[in-house]
Amino acid sequence: MSIIAHEHAAESHVHRDDVGSRMGMWLFLFTELILFGGMFFLYAVYRFMHQEDFHVAAKELNTIIGTFNTALLLTSSLTMALSITAIQKRNRNLSIFFQVITIILALGFMVNKYFEWTSKIHHGIFPGSEELLAQNSGQILFFGLYYVMTGLHGLHVLIGMVLIAVMTRLTKRGVINADSYVKLEAAGLYWHLVDIIWIFLFPLFYLIT
Amino acid sequence: MSKLEEHTEQHTHSYSIYILVWLALMILTGVTVAVAGINFGTFTIATALLIASVKTYLVLSIFMHLRIEQRVFRVFVFVAFLFFLISIVLLFSDYSFL
Amino acid sequence: MSADTAIHINNNEPSYLEYRGKGTGIKSWIFSTDHKRISILYLVSLLSFFAVGVTLGFLIRLELIAPGKTIVEPQTYNSFFTLHGVIMIFLFVVPGLPAAFGNFFLPIMVGAKDVSFPRLNLLSWWLYIIGGLMAITSIFLPGGPADTGWTFYIPYSVRTGTNVIFTVFAAFVLGFSSILTGLNFITTIHRLRAPGMGWFKMPLFIWSLYSTAWIQILATPIIGITLVLIAIERIFGVGLFDPSLGGDPVLYQHLFWIYSHPAVYIMILPAMGVISEILPTFANRTIFGYKFIAFSSIGIALFGSLVWAHHMFTAGMSDTGQFIFSLLTFLVAIPSAIKVFNWVATLYKGSIDLQPPLYYALGFIFLFCIGGFTGLIQGSLAVNMQIHDTSFVVGHFHYIVFGGTGFGIFAALHYWLPKMTGRMYNLKTAKTAFWIAFIGFNVLYFPMLIMGWLGMPRRYYDYLPEFWPYHLTATIGSWILITGLAIMFVNLIKSVRKGPVVTKQNIWGGHTLEWSVPTPPPLENFEEVPVITEGPYEYKENEEAEPELQEVK
Question: Is B92 in Cβ contact with A44 (below 8 Å)?
Fold first, then answer.
């Protein structure tokens, strides 16, 4: 085990441990993974019980928008990773640029989601609607899961956007810099998890026709 | 190594690796969509999940730096994944049989 | 802290109790990021909520002392047992040992100055308080407190007009608090151990906290999403568990128990860790089977995550599911049994020092065994059909949770409180209180095992006259138990301000790091980072006295 390095003798009780910070973030990500995991359990069981209904219901979703959203999120993961390399290479402005692009791509995702949802609701497909309740159980369940899971995911996209915006500000102020960027790494980890969840949501909802 | 040294160690990839991985992810997405159009029955969903797993592996190991972190991080991810997997298998022991 | 509670020690460093850093008075406590102060904050809050929970238990027993109405209407009774469960589980036993004692002693026992994330630690306490206050507030909001039982089973939890949403959000917030503690502990144990402290030189309390922390991280989010889904069902009527819309209420139960069963291991593992600390100290010899106990902690965490559906054998599961979960339930008893064997072996040929912590530790072993055996009985499918949802279950889980974790907390209090406060309690009173509580405990809960076997259902407001003698006995037992607890707590609380001052570092003769720092410890725990060369329970005195055996040729 390594000896804790005291950088400032007076503040020796405040130590810096970047690996520990990342470890803490990974542990938190596991909780997010399992939170969504619970919903995936529900999806798996209900799909197993209502395979045909799920096929039919999935036809209502727009594969093109779904694919486009997937592309947006994957690209935002790229820009997030690039922003960390940039700050590490002491290129502060480039890092900020990539962080801002990430937020814009995320915003694009949310805008698409908004249009998808409003279109569905406009067509009378939402929990509790007469139109939906007239369908088979499997279809009702599909859309119940759709709204809850993409809604929960969307909430996490929003949280991620706020988190990255905070990081952008900290980078501008120099708090995040080439010698101290673990906060940006942690935000990046969070963002990549949001991406991974969508990587699974996409085929399970849009591609089972 | 001391924690001080750990801070200053190179801890990220070059730009080009990330862009290559991104390209792979986009291609894999295209493949998933194309395959979904062809109906293999139950294989379609299995293929889609398999491709999603490959994409996830790329994001985890390159974007999230799991490949260059200490080994304990990979052990952690494995444990979390194992918990998820065992839970869903046991859950299905109730649903897939009489 | 006022002058008469300030404890000064010889080497000029003030103790953590009187350290003047950020601000004065209450602000220096509720905004402190010192793990020791946070643990005291937790301790005071935990015991306050415990008092509320005990009061509710007292009222429940009072209502049940005779058939028919005694003091309250059925609706109120339903809310009583719901709140009793929610408070005891989410506000006392789950946070319990990790928050109050893990926070204090984990860093010290591994040779660190604090946990990895001191600010998250403070946030964890604040979330605990917020969740706790939300749970209490739900009592007074229109609609009244939830009456669903702490399990919130669908469909009743969706249909009842009581404050379910508020209560489940309280539980959600408390789950977050638990997650932060687990996250902090795992990182601290991996990253901040002192030089020389390899994994197998760590005290067993740390092993138990480590295993517990993993369950906190992996299992708690499941209850998080489950509670969110209850709220979503109530507000939006999505129908995910509604049979008329294709949903499956049994699936709710699966989701609920995937957390709530591992949760009981969150409750018991740290208590087992405490026992593993106390026995070597008061037997004056090293723990028997250190590695077995360490690995069994991991084993319990692992196996405990695989048995959840044994709470649902009568709910409408498939036969295959029932068989598999019953088998796994029998398996999970094995690592626990390993611990009990090792504890008993530790005492054998030890030099026993009968002090109050040992009393509670021995009480723990006895009560835990009864709780464990009654658990095995329920794991058997055929028997479970008879005793599910009867008083037998209530007796079982009180033996294991109250007799186990509860007595573990009492043991930890008697062992560590003098170290934390620098004051000693009255030893004789502590022993008397133990006996009264122990006897009361068994008079209260053993009849439940019998009447449950005979068919008395649980959560019932009224009952057939044939069960009256058991209920009467149990209620009288509750009075004896509460008397014992009251004497115990008055003794401990009085000692904090008025007990004789203790400055001795090694109060009981233990060999783990907390007994090598001043009493009470200074802010940064250690003057210099310790370098570890020995294991945690190296008692040399006894072992050296053994004569060397001669080889016979």
Answer: yes
CA A62, chain centre distance (Å): 20
Residues in chain B, overall count: 98
Alpha-carbon distance of C250 to C140, in angstroms, equals 31
What does R_g of chain B's alpha carbons equal in angstroms? Answer: 18
Give the closest residue to C409 by CA, choosing from C186, C101, C159: C101
Query: Which residues is C501 bridged to in the sheet?
Result: C423
DSSP string, A142-195: HHHHHHHHHHHHHHHHHHHHHHHHHHHHHHHHTSSBTTB-HHHHHHHHHHHHHH
Which residue's entry shows tokens 């109730």? B94
DSSP sequence for C266-279: HHHHHHHHHHHHHH
Q: What is the rounded CA–CA span in Å between residue A30 and residue C213? A: 13
- Read off the tokens for C254: 């699966």
Find out whether C96 and C123 touch, Cβ atoms under 8 Å: no
d(CA C99, CA C87): 15
pLDDT greater than 90 at residue C309: yes
**What are the extents of the domains in chain C?**
23-539
Interatomic CA distance for residues C104 and C37, integer angstroms = 8
Q: Find residue A126's DSSP bridge partners.
A: none
Is A189 near chain B, with CB under 8 Å? yes
Return the H-helix or E-strand segment holding A17. none
Kindly report the nearest CA distance between residue A30 and chain B, in angstroms. 7
Nearest to C255 by CA among A40, A69, A134: A40
Domain ranges across chain B: 10-64, 71-98
Contact C178, C216 (CB under 8 A): yes
Task: Check CB contact of A3 with chain B, cutoff 8 Å.
Answer: yes
Per-residue model confidence (pLDDT) at position C4: 38
Q: Give the C-alpha distances (Å, rounded to integers) separating B96 from A49, B83, B90, C318, C319.
A: 9, 20, 10, 8, 11
Q: Which residues contact C132 (CB under 8 A, 6 or more apart)?
A: C45, C49, C91, C170, C174
CATH of domain C23-539: 1.20.210.10
- With an 8 Å Cβ cutoff, is B87 touching chain C? yes
Q: Give DSSP secondary structure letters for A14-50.
A: S---HHHHHHHHHHHHHHHHHHHHHHHHHHHHHHHH-
Asked if the peptide bond before residue C155 counts as cis, ω within 30 degrees of 0, the response is yes
Which of the four pLDDT bands, split at 50, 70 and 90, describes residue A160?
Answer: very high
How far is it, in rounded angstroms, from Cα C45 to Cα C127? 12
C-alpha angle C366/C511/C295, rounded to 5°?
55
pLDDT of residue B3: 55
DSSP C193-257: PPTT--GGGS-HHHHHHHHHHHHHHHHHHHHHHHHHHHHHHHHH---TT-GGGT--HHHHHHHHH
Q: Map out the domains of chain A with their CATH numbers.
A: 18-206 (1.20.120.80)
3-state helix, strand, coil in chain B (%, to 5): 80, 0, 20
Structure token digits, residue C442: 């068994």
Closest to A68 (Cα-Cα) out of A105, A36, A40, A121: A105
The answer to whether B11 touches A20, Cβ cutoff 8 Å, is no
Classified as helix, coil or strand, A18 is helix
Structural contact between residues C52 and C136, judged by C-beta atoms closer than 8 angstroms: yes
**Cα dist from C203 to C144, C183, C199, C200, C513, whole Å:** 46, 19, 9, 8, 9
Q: Which of residues 121-180 of A touch B (CB under 8 A)?
A: 179-180
Residue range C224-247, pLDDT digits in tens: 999 999 999 999 989 899 988 889
- Taking the C-alpha atoms of residue C442 and residue C474, their distance in angstroms, rounded to an integer, is 9
Lowest mean pLDDT among A123-127, A144-148, B20-24, C421-425: A123-127
Question: Which residues does chain C have within 8 Å of residue B83's beta carbon, measured at their own beta carbons?
Answer: 218, 305
Q: What pTM did the predictor assign?
A: 0.93
Q: Which of B72, B83, B93 sits opposite C320 (nearest CB)?
A: B93
